[in-house]
Amino acid sequence: MSIVSIEATINAKWAQGHSSYSPGSPEELAIISIELLVKELGTQAAQNFVKQAFERYPSMIETTE
């Protein structure tokens, strides 16, 4: 695995407001992305979207069930 740093400013707007984010790592970017997906799609649809995204990487998914 490699170390990745991110330098970005994300400005998100929706009918009820807006937010600005400055992630510094892939983990922070993922948290922001999930938050925005939940705002946009709702919790269940966001979970399904993330599940579909992970299906692109079958050799990287570990099953804990």
In short:
This protein has two helices and two strands. The chain is an alpha+beta fold and about 60 residues long.
Please characterize this protein's 3D structure.
With 65 residues, the protein is of the alpha+beta class. It has one domain (10-60). The chain contains two helices and two strands; from the N terminus they run ββαα. Helix 1 (26-41) packs across helix 2. It is flat.
Spans with pLDDT under 50 lasting ≥5 residues? none
Helix-strand makeup class:
alpha+beta
For the record, the count of structural domains works out to: 1
Order of helix and strand elements from N to C terminus: EEHH
Q: What would you call the shape?
A: flat
Relative helix content = 40-55%
Characteristics:
65 residues, flat, two-stranded antiparallel ribbon, single chain, 15% strand, alpha+beta
Write the layout of secondary structure elements.
Layout: E1 10-14, E2 17-21, H1 26-41, H2 43-54
Antiparallel strand pairs: 1-2
